[in-house]
Write a structure and sequence with these properties.
16 helices, single chain, alpha/beta, globular
């Protein structure tokens, strides 16, 4: 370790709370007669202030008796002068903790003192009440689930989706079980691809979001050596980055720019990555490798669907072939068998292909075993499930965004990303997040009605002998169960615009978006004679990727594969990766390569699996996330 984490100083709460280089100067919102009127897109909470802490907010209350921030939406940026000024000494914050009676915890909202965007460089911190005294000091004798204020794990859960900006979550039924388990719950906000300053400058492009997550720091109860990062989708990519880029010096310049304290560490103890949208350098190649034989796309989020054009099919073939070369260049090894993993030229043979098939089969095996033993709360028998003799609830298409048969439409990546941000962190059918008996299955309105659907007959590709599930082939599984959602060049979009999600992520301060795929210039050159019109339309934009050193740096900093195994990186001790088998947002091989690279190049304890019948989101079985946390922390 290059820097030392601290979590305790005398009777004061003194913790490096998150995967964090500390923020230089923090501010916090002061408690009022209501804990907060701030909304983050979740339901308002009925909060009660601890009577012993009453009066702390009086000096900051407005004429109506409410704190100055009451009713302020998190998407609004408050005047920095309104934020209370503080320091890293807890005596400045002891009277600002808010008691949440409904959830049995204290909460504190922190802000950077001089942030690029105050609301997007903050964090909310929630501590079980047993660990604190009313005056804001530690209760050293308090225990929950065998943990104390000095030993409790710190859950650091980001809300990033689609590489967009993320608000800091409030304590709610959705996350309060962390508190019941005795964990500290920290939710950071961060800048994203669309974040702009008052003068219109883009201040959230890569790697801003990751830097914000690294830089958030606070002082609180909890073991700073047991920080566990959790994220989903692009947030899963961020969690993977936090787990694999600890204390890497490449980020220091960016951290210093936002005033981070550079004498503390930013590595984490563990990382949970759900369906990580990562390795964007090879994401388009991977997607075309996976769906090379399926050129009909159907994006239920946007309602757009169609058939790839001849040009797109030619691009797909080239990208798929390039991915074969890429996989073989990695020299991956199956950690269990020691077998070298490679792909045949056709992309549908070789040990890596067999490895991916086996992962899909393992996921099906676990699911079917659970049905057989009756441990899943599902309304069907195993036989009925395989034959599709049941009904289920699902989401219909997005109204007004296109109807079946609208072939040839350009995918609206912005709609996809917005839906991803809204849905990836809380689909009703996803079981990865911690649940309670009072947990609501309602999600943010995505404009898609809940519909009843008939189950799918899986017997054409999936078989079960009572012990092991088998699929006939990867293509059969994809065609019948996990079909193509996105068009060719799904990430570095051909029709780059303000609606192209990942293109927006790689823009800079003055450019909203950029192309970023470094393989596409050669692909276009090889197709120049066959498709001269398309070459003329796209070549100049993609050619600009080559030689753009600033863009190359932004890409470097956003890909964990560039740092896994590096001597400069302190990798998390434990990394857990879960992806649903009905996830068509990125290729399944992306998470597999991430896991294999970690297992081949580091000493990390890697727990990687696909989860059957789960879409893009928190793919998991009820309780297994908590079981993993308990296993690695006790």
């Amino acid at each position: 370790m290059k820097r030392k984490k601290r979590f305790y100083q005398g009777s004061l709460l003194f913790a490096a709370a998150v995967a964090a280089v500390g923020v230089s100067g923090c501010s916090s919102q002061k408690a009022g007669t209501v804990a907060s009127g701030v909304e983050t897109g979740e339901e308002n909470q009925q909060n009660t202030t601890d009577p012993d802490m009453q009066g702390a907010a009086d000096e900051k209350a407005g004429a109506d008796g409410k704190p100055f921030y009451a009713g302020m939406a998190m998407s609004q940026t408050p005047d920095v002068s309104q934020l209370l000024q503080g320091s890293l000494d807890l005596k400045d914050f002891q009277d600002k903790w808010v008691y949440y009676d409904e959830y049995g915890c204290y909460g504190l909202e922190y802000y950077c003192e001089n942030p690029a965007d105050p609301v997007k460089e903050c964090m909310n911190i929630y501590v079980p009440a047993a660990y604190m005294n009313a005056g804001g000091t530690i209760n050293e004798k308090g225990t929950v689930n065998g943990y104390t204020a000095a030993t409790a794990p710190i859950i650091y859960q980001n809300g990033v989706g689609g590489y967009a900006e993320a608000d800091a979550s409030k304590i709610s039924d959705r996350n309060s079980n962390y508190i019941k388990q005795g964990y500290i719950f920290v939710s950071p906000a961060s800048r994203g691809k669309e974040t702009q300053s008052a003068d219109g400058t883009y201040i959230g492009k890569s790697p801003a979001g990751l830097v914000d997550l690294k830089a958030n720091d606070a002082e609180m109860a909890g073991d700073a050596n047991k920080i566990i990062s959790i994220g989903t989708s692009a947030g899963g990519a961020m969690s993977a980055l936090l787990g694999s880029t600890g204390n890497v010096s490449d980020y220091d310049t960016y951290l210093k720019e936002i005033g981070a304290v550079m004498d503390q560490t930013d590595d984490v103890y563990a990382a949970q990555a759900y369906c990580p949208i990562t390795d964007l350098d090879h994401a388009d190649q991977a997607y075309e490798w996976m769906y090379q034989n399926l050129q009909t796309y159907n994006n239920s989020r946007s309602g757009e669907n169609g058939e790839s054009t001849d040009f797109e099919k030619a691009v797909s073939a080239q990208m798929s072939s390039g991915y074969v070369d890429y996989i073989n260049s990695l020299k991956l090894v199956d950690p269990e068998s020691g077998e070298a993993l490679n792909l045949g030229e056709d992309g549908r043979s070789g040990s890596f292909y067999n490895y991916m098939v086996a992962k899909v089969e393992d996921a099906a095996t676990v699911y079917l075993e659970k049905i057989s033993e009756g441990s899943l709360n599902v309304p069907y028998t195993l036989e009925d499930y395989l034959k599709g003799n049941y009904t289920k609830q699902g989401r219909g298409g997005k109204p007004g965004a296109g109807q079946p048969g609208d072939a040839g439409k350009t995918r609206d990546a912005g709609q996809m990303a917005d839906a991803e941000k809204a849905e990836a962190t809380g689909q009703p059918e996803n079981a990865g997040r911690i649940k309670s008996e009072t947990d609501s299955t309602e999600t943010r309105d995505t404009g898609r009605a809940v519909v009843t659907e008939k189950g799918s007959d899986l017997s054409s590709f999936l078989s079960w002998d009572g012990k092991q599930a088998k699929i006939t082939s990867l293509d059969d599984y994809l065609a019948d169960y996990n079909p193509r959602m996105k068009t060719v060049m799904a990430f570095d979009n051909l029709e780059m615009s303000e609606n192209s999600g990942e293109n927006l992520e790689f823009g800079d301060e003055t450019h909203q978006y950029f192309h970023f795929d470094s393989y596409m210039p050669d692909v276009l050159e090889s197709l120049k004679e066959e498709f001269p019109d398309e070459y003329a339309k796209y070549a100049e934009g993609y050619d600009a990727v080559i030689g753009d050193k600033a863009l190359a740096e932004r890409k470097q900093l956003l890909n964990p594969l560039n740092y896994i195994g590096s001597e400069d990186a302190d990798t998390a001790e434990h990394i857990r990766i879960r992806v649903g088998t009905q996830d068509a947002d990125t290729a399944l091989s992306i998470s597999a390569v991430l896991a294999l690279s970690l297992e081949n190049k580091t000493g990390a304890d890697v727990d990687y699996a696909l989860v059957w019948d789960q879409p893009h989101g928190d793919a998991d079985y009820d309780g297994e996330l908590v079981q993993w946390i308990e296993k690695i922390c006790k």
